[in-house]
């Protein structure tokens, strides 16, 4: 039944699995949909959100399962793989199940980490479409975002070149934008470190306004955050008009609406509101919506996709980015709150590789072979590393969601290592399953599926960590101590001045707090593994997302634009010109 | 039958016309296609080029009609409108007809000129999809192109930071790229003048290689040129690997293949090879493929779309960009030659507005009301302006293609003005029709359709202006004199040195010559209207497109990145949040 994942590459398994992938017609029949609720785009239809939600709005919601992880190695610990394995396992148990994952960014796909399609017998198909742009949501976001930047720079040029009277002839009032106080940069969906800090507008007076500027990765755009939390199209439209692009010389916010570009930005994004349907390797429907990078962005599958999934399926499995300190914390206090969602179960994914790293194993470097500690049994490293797991388990417990720990199996795992983890987790009062979905698909994930179904019988005591009334600095203090395990927070003077301004301005009273922090440690320092003790969280800046309604404290030296390494994935990707098929994705 | 184009805006007519737009199933039946030859993408299917061409390869070609124009005003003279009107007119005459147009760029659509969807009752539907990204070809080109730039800058950084030994560990050999001799820039599909000249890589040693760089408009990418001239997928793949990105410090070309990024670029572009099917307002199929900007790019609908159209239709109407000196010249000597195509008829579009401008009328400025000369009868200006028309007519005659002049009707045209033009054209030995497709759709284009069908009975004497054996500078001299009407060519020393190098290197022997020149004058100076006399063509640089196999002499001060004006179209575009429909496109 399952393909031999030890011999075949992921793109080869995908090619085989795609031969049995449901057609749009089959999917309509299987899920009892109306034909016009799916809009075909090649092999991957989009769901017509407005139509389907209207028809199903009174149907009771299914069980809501979130998947998060312990602090990962730079290789990732198979959260998407586990999400897909769990879906396959629940289907093997005869359940009506589906899920939602995030669309991968061209940055990691073309760089070292590869596509985010899962792997082995728990991967997402069609893999090529999924990995390379899908139905264009990220491109739409990139185009909408950069249109705003074109409008900003052109407006600054015209204001520099024209008098007030000449501007008035064109129906324009001087915005008097401060070039030293611009909030937004441009975006591109790659890890393009060379575009992090740039100077633009070199040349004559018609060659744009000369100023320092920057590029971030497109999936980190505020527009992606808006897509993740928007409830519907009117909400999306309204948020797009409130994005703060820059400030005037007197410190007044200059928004997308002031630049008169918000309607056109929404026009570029009109199709993004409809999630795309892909499939697990065993044919269960999985919606793809919103984007990754829970360290520098919200990194959640969307509220819209989850609302749809809870209506369509009896079990809806969704994913948050990276580990429970960063991705789950945003799922808990930002996304679920804004979406009015009540999760039942959170699956905490761990690998023995990552536990060993947290237990003191040698550094794991992408592209280099793993040291021996990771390929041979080592109970001591595993036991020590479980401190990281238990810390994340406690984060989930604080949310009132029922946790299930999943050890995502690897062929080097030993029976003794697995049993040790199960013992430690059970002593901490949580369910624990070992799962072999990578090797065996749904048949390998039955233990996990059973544990999750059992956990769903418990009642979720879901509650947010803090009320929205809590002031910004108090919230950050609470997150730092209760979630990350810090002793406290150190604010850089400029960041604290900003925080005070936001706290005293009622406009920001209902803004969410979206932390920007590395995912590679519970702390802000990616080199500190396990459970760092005796440290304080440094906040160096606070970004404002006026449309998403987020204040984003930035912890440590993290960049909004990753870098491309010296042995990136694009070196190995190609197209078979006889068949048009893409080879070499992983 | 026709909608009242004097009262309704284009997007409103489109909305009405789209109610009768054929479904994919209806199109399959109407054109006798196999079901799997069309791949649905929302309302606009892509043609599976490989499958359809294989089935139809032995079918005789239909009649091949190209549409070009006289030197336009900055507003455009309705070449796309006439293309669609002609298709509608031929359909009214009971012919099996279709066509090919180019996908519009976000630059003009969001700037002053608006979308390139035609207008009135001769417009292209679905208008929103067509205007805003369609099935993603331009996004795919942008992503493929910028991946190459990411690879370039990352490689330069890693070569600066690593020794030869450290590079070798990663399987890399030093390319030693000269930062002062980089051929390619980045692309974005807007008129973003602020990105014309930039400095990138500011920051530390991991923040990219610091250097001067540039952005061009995405539709002007060499990848778009490759898409326009590629015969099939193997041809596309091979060309993508030969793009010259930069030069080493010893002057050796550094290609996409040297950067090991050509396979991944092809992967991003794998779907672009399939043209998208849209429709005229009256429901005839029109393929959309490749891009605009025949001044700075090739600006042709693709060889692939035309090959398909000639198999599918008895009359296939295709469009080249701007006027006959620049777009038609490339159609004639580049696209038709490379594609092995034999055009039958060229339609030369003129408006009375443009003729008056060439006859000495006041300047036409986008966004400002037209002076009285253009709205009232003025036979003198029309007669003088016909010199420009006759010049373009002569260009077409030199190609051996049978010309038909079309006066694209406007409500201010008078009977006397129309008759004057017809008299002048007929005295020059060519057919001439007045056409009211904007107002009346196909019924308004019957005179034009009849003239074109009649012209198709003549045998085309198609031949290129020059053989590929002719050296570069001789070719440019010939084009300047025979096509533009210049007295000669002045080479800037640097450009001439490059030209000599290309002439002496057999690698470039079969490269096409793709001129870069303003479309707003027969000369290089956009302010010179009519038929400029006593001038010489200045060539300041020669670009190399190693994959497209083009050498591109640049005439005058033209930029590869247009600018956004002070009253751009995006100010008026928005989305109806109840229906999701886009409003305000024009």
TrEMBL record, chains A, B:
Q: Which residues hold ATP?
A: 73-80
Q: Which domain of life is it from?
A: Bacteria
For this protein, the record's PROSITE patterns field holds: FTHFS_2
Annotated source species: Desulfosporosinus youngiae DSM 17734
Q: Which HAMAP family match?
A: FTHFS
* Pfam annotation, one family: FTHFS
One GO term in the molecular function aspect is: formate-tetrahydrofolate ligase activity
In Swiss-Prot or TrEMBL terms, this protein is called Formate--tetrahydrofolate ligase
Q: Which UniProt keywords apply?
A: ATP-binding, Ligase, Nucleotide-binding, One-carbon metabolism
